[in-house]
Amino acid sequence: MTPREIRDRFGAHREIQGGGWLHLKKGQITDDTEMSLALGASILDKGAVEARAAAEAFSAWMRTKPADIGHTVRRGLVHFRRTGETAVPHNEYNAGNGACMRTLPVALFTYGQDEAAVRAAVVAQAHVTHNSELADAGTLCTVRMIQLALSGAPKAELKRLADELAAARPEYRYAGKPRENPSGFIAETLQVVFQALFENDGFESGLIETVNRGGDADTTGAIYGMLGGTLYGVQAIPERWLKDLDHKTKAACEAQALALMALAQ
Q1: How far, CA to CA in Å, does 265 sit from each of 30, 113, 242?
Q2: How far, in Å, are 103, 172, 182, 243, 259 from residue 142 at the CA level?
Q3: How far is CA 48 from CA 53, 117, 186, 264, in A?
Q4: DSSP class per residue in 102-120
């Protein structure tokens, strides 16, 4: 939905209720969380971020006929099945948000590692479907921001990283008029996320603003959730939202996050 459509129907969309163009059950997840859990499971199984293990996990997930799957992700997994290659050819036009939306397990597992190791892990899983320097830059910045938040750094430190990204890659500039109706292009995705994160003082208000910008809202919401969740902590997530989540999925996310952090320690 566009922001105007959201305003006309809800005023402001504040609650989990299901439906939408995918006709989801209340509390059901989309490809963002499904791919994150698949990636996390592969990391726990191998004790490392391995491109082949990630590709096989994503391919197995695609066989479940998910409710939603991005075109770039589908092409990348078909490429892996056909060739056995764990990286698609470089293509700057494939700068979608599909690698960033699932990157939380990498951020947790590589917490405390040096920057070269973090970058190698980010690229290993990303290039299975998205081999783009622009997308790599945004995904790596997101991971570094998550890890800063995990360390207890203030929001200003996260903003410093976002500003460095915007200075190096102008496509990510997020100051000025609010971005609305973002597409799957990673720069538009992170513009929405950064604006909401830095212009709000809490998890709830920032997530509400993010998803009410419309467009690819499950992905902007997922990435805001990674950053806002680590910055503000689980205690900042409204209890009414937690109760509405699919209980098995909620338990899987909690268990996997703890297991990944245990390996990082």
Answers
A1: 30, 10, 27
A2: 8, 12, 17, 27, 21
A3: 9, 11, 26, 10
A4: T-HHHHHHTTTS-HHHHHH
Residue 3 sits at the vertex; the CA angle it makes with 72 and 139, to the nearest 5 degrees, is 35
Closest Cα partner for 76 from 93, 63, 89?
Answer: 89
Taking the C-alpha atoms of residue 221 and residue 6, their distance in angstroms, rounded to an integer, is 15
Task: Report helix, strand or coil for 41.
Answer: helix
pLDDT tens, position by position, for the chain (265 residues)?
999 999 999 999 999 989 988 899 999 999 999 999 999 999 999 999 999 999 999 999 999 999 899 999 999 999 999 999 999 999 999 999 999 999 999 999 999 999 999 999 999 999 999 999 999 999 999 999 999 999 999 999 999 999 999 999 999 999 988 899 999 999 999 999 999 999 999 999 999 999 999 999 999 999 999 999 999 999 999 999 999 999 999 999 999 999 999 999 7
Q: What is the largest CA-CA distance in the chain?
A: 49
Angle at 211 between CA 206 and CA 217, to 5 degrees: 135
